[in-house]
Amino acid sequence: MVRVALTLLLLYLVFGVLIPSFASYEDVWDALTSLDPVIVILLAALTFVVEGCKAGAFALLIGPLRFPDAFLAQESAAVVSNTVPGPSGTAARYGIYRKLGISTEDFATSYVVNSSVSNVLPLVLPSIGLALLSTQEDVPGAVWTLALVGLGISLALLVLAVLIVRSEQFARAFGARLGRFLNWLRGMARRPPGDDLGDTVVEWRSNVVGLFRTRVLGLVGLFVLREIATYLILLASLRGLGVGAGILTAIEVFAVYTVVRLATLVEITPGNVGITEALYISALNWAAGGREADAIVAAVFVFRMFTYLGPILIGGVCTVLLSRRFRRAGAGSAS
């Protein structure tokens, strides 16, 4: 209840206080209704590319999982993850995969590999975006600090992953040290110690090393395409609502996208609703020098309509299709 109350308070502060300080909702609505149908079709197509990349990653990692099934599961889980707090989407995906005949081991391995690779890109992208932006204008030191911290974390995680994959001895030693540290934290909280993580990390290594070696390039390609398509949704939303290159260049938009992507890597509200909108509006208005504020707010709403509400709408259809399929399968097995 406390988390729900805090979420509602946050949404009120964002949509009731922060956003109206940039533009009136009436002017935003006028901008939204002026959107060209061709832009709407383009945004819808890019949304399916983004969601297809997410589903394709799991289809690539799980041999028995066909892409159509992966897409149905991805979008059905998105309905839950974008509306229910906590790791609800992961639980929903697991339940669907089990009904599709995917083993718990395959799900766990694919989830770990998928998360490991997908979370590295948002850590790396800000350094690229800001390096490009620095060719046009000065970048505040605080923004550079955020980007460099993200790059440093990603490099450290990459080195750690390589060492674990290359050496079983290192994997066991790392797991043992991590386990001791976690047990120390549990002791501080007066909780009983957990199991030794040395064997757990070694087992994880044996499960994922093959996938990393054979699928990592394809996986990285899918995630790069996903990030590019998501950025293009933001850029097309801005251009479609009249925010031209004279106000925000493509590089400026990309730099804002990468920084906000990193800042919202950890979800606080379902789909980071409210937080994402506030960060994009603030960052884009800062980059634009306060010009075209109404159009920028409207563009962020359009962007979120396709990247946040879009998967919910697609997922609603996918949930119905899966429910009918599972009911037919249940009726067939019963007879």
Structural class call reads mainly alpha
Strand residues, percent: under 5%
The percent of residues in helical segments reads over 70%
> Which residues form runs of ≥5 with pLDDT under 50?
none
Give a count of the beta strands, DSSP E runs of length 2 or more. Answer: 0
- Measured distance between first and last alpha carbons: 44 Å
Largest sheet: none
H/E element string? HHHHHHHHHHHHH
Radius of gyration: 22 Å
Overall geometric form: globular
Mean pLDDT: 82
Number of separate structural domains: 1
How many helices does DSSP assign? 13
Overview of the structural elements:
The protein is mostly helical and 335 residues long. The chain has one domain. It contains 13 helices and no strands.
Helix and strand topology:
Layout: H1 2-22, H2 25-33, H3 37-61, H4 67-81, H5 88-99, H6 104-118, H7 120-133, H8 141-166, H9 168-188, H10 198-240, H11 250-263, H12 275-287, H13 293-334
